[in-house]
Amino acid sequence: MIRFENVTKVHDPRAKPALDSVSVEIEGGEFVFLVGASGSGKSTFLKMIYREDVATSGSVYVAGHNVSTLTSWRVPKLRRKIGVVFQDFRILPQKNVYQNVAFAMQVIGASRARTKERVTDVLAMVGLEGMEKRMQHELSGGEQQRVAIARAVVNQPDILLADEPTGNLDPTTSEEITEVLKKINANGTTVVMATHDDDIVDRMRRRVIELSRGKVMRDEAKATYTSLIPKVTPATGTTGEAQA
Amino acid sequence: MRPMFIFGEIVNGLRRNLSMFISVVLVTFVSLTFVGAAGMLQMQINQMKGYWYDKVQVAIFLCSPGSTTANCSSGPVTKEQQDNLRKLLDSDAVRQYVNDYQFESQQEAYAHFKEQFANSPIVDSVTPDQLPSSFRVNLKDPQKYQIISESFSSQPGVESVIDQRQILEKLFSAMNTASIVAIGIAAIMIVCAALLIATTIRLSAFMRRKETAIMRLVGASKAVIQLPFILEGVLAAVVGALLASGAIWAISHFFLTGYLADQYKQTAFISDAQTLWLVPALIALGAVIAGVSSLFTLRKPLNA
Ligand SMILES: Nc1ncnc2c1ncn2[C@@H]1O[C@H](COP(=O)(O)OP(=O)(O)O)[C@@H](O)[C@H]1O
Ligand SMILES: [Mg+2]
């Protein structure tokens, strides 16, 4: 579904590359955590996939297409296959919940009837039924992120990218949001989630790709936030019982 | 693409950006009114040329009791002098240039004068013997005026030879200058309008940067993202063009056909119907200005 071949991204030639010879393959239907310190290249990794950024060298394949060589007028077609959510929600403040989600369908020309049907379904799926008329200031952070997720999946994308979606949320709400993403993944959507949240990663036990200074440090199935293999686990780890 | 959705986005944009919309409307209104006025002047020039050129004549004015030129120092024209002039007009040398000619007596000149200035108090202060009698000569080729002038101006009993066409040419060139000035003002105003439209689009793109960012993120095509901005500019310009059309129609209806045509019954003025031909041209011009200006603006990404 997503394949990186020796991808390097240089923003500033004087600094170290944001991504440094990254080669990774993600299958359709996977749930992948992308972890690493701030500045390690997680956002850049995701941007390569929805072509917000283009690789300096190497190739990125998404659903069989080489995204690196995509002409700009084909980008909208790629984006329709990918949903993206962010830490800061990006809800449109002058539209209500329903309109925010419907907007994503209207701008790609969906019919009114189809839009109504899909938006109603998706709002129920993310747990927002009955809140259609609420405005942004009437929603909690968790509810706003649910709106953003609904908007990202309303066009039934193959891939959902989440860039630190729980970064602004308390632990309980973060948990709930992760459950929503899990549900979406269970329906067959590939989910890639960049995160700092070790609790969530440790509890979910999914594939973890760790970046450090733009390089892939670790790529493990059913893993935890901090690698259990090479390091001596300090006494602080609540998940320390999982010794290999 | 959903027209109602795009229309709704435009209305939303206009509501948020109403003062800019109004300024674009007003600037295009004023600039296109100048364009329209220049167009009307040109139409009027053509109208008058068509009307007058086959009617204008060379007038050989004869000495009257009030004449003061040196050639008339011996007093008003005599019967004998008149007969000599007629002979000269009938001579082979002159005939080859002349279609026909008529004699206009002082009484006839007075009658014409009264007719032309029917609404003016000047009529009451003029008497027939103040107006000169004249020969009215129609030339085969109006350009050959010089030959008539040379042959007749120094003949005894002739006060002056006047080419009416030259008087008209002066009027036409004054009108032409006025229309060039109007076009010049219009050109400056059109540049203002284009720049203002560009600024408006940039401002409204900035105010809607969140929407356009989401649109690009979910895969809206470039056309859907840009169309509301382009249509907003075009709509403002077309409203301006409609106001300008209203203005030139009002000038035509109330000033030209309503006032001037009444005052100068001899002159052929363009009609309201002719003026209306300018309306589609003004609307098209407004739409093109806005369209070109917005396409130039949108060549840079909208998210800045
Ligand atoms: N547009 C940009 N211009 C210059 N440098 C950038 C840009 N985007 C990211 N970077 C740099 O690339 C590196 C990786 O950034 P990012 O992918 O945002 O990391 P993360 O999301 O893991 O925090 C950082 O050093 C950052 O400063
Ligand atoms: Mg980041």
Automatic annotation (TrEMBL), chain A:
Subcellular location: Cell membrane
Domain ABC transporter per the UniProt entry, residue ranges: 2-238
Pfam families, alphabetized: ABC_tran (PF00005)
Example GO BP: cell division
InterPro entries assigned to the protein according to its UniProt record, in alphabetical order: AAA+_ATPase, ABC_transporter-like_ATP-bd, ABC_transporter-like_CS, ABC_transpr_LolD-like, Cell_div_FtsE, P-loop_NTPase
This protein's record includes keyword ATP-binding: yes
Origin superkingdom: Bacteria
Signal peptide from the UniProt entry: none
Membrane topology: Peripheral membrane protein
Family indicated by similarity: Belongs to the ABC transporter superfamily.
Family matches, as NCBIfam families: FtsE
Oligomeric and partner information: Homodimer. Forms a membrane-associated complex with FtsX.
Protein function: Part of the ABC transporter FtsEX involved in cellular division.
Annotated protein name in UniProt: Cell division ATP-binding protein FtsE
Species: Arthrobacter horti
From TrEMBL, chain B:
Lipid bilayer topology: Multi-pass membrane protein
Domain ABC3 transporter permease C-terminal: 184-301
Any matching Pfam family: FtsX_ECD
Domain FtsX extracellular, chain residue ranges per copy: 56-161
Keyword Membrane part of the UniProt annotation: yes
Subcellular localization, as worded in the UniProt entry: Cell membrane
Keywords, alphabetical: Cell cycle, Cell division, Cell membrane, Membrane, Transmembrane, Transmembrane helix
TM spans (from-to): 21-45, 180-203, 224-256, 276-298
Tagged with keyword Cell cycle: yes
Highest taxon of the lineage: Bacteria
InterPro entries attached to this UniProt entry: ABC3_permease_C, FtsX, FtsX_actino, FtsX_ECD
UniProt xrefs under PANTHER family: CELL DIVISION PROTEIN FTSX
Annotated function: Part of the ABC transporter FtsEX involved in cellular division.
Record text on subunit structure and interactions: Forms a membrane-associated complex with FtsE.
UniProt similarity note: Belongs to the ABC-4 integral membrane protein family. FtsX subfamily.
Name of the molecule in the record: Cell division protein FtsX
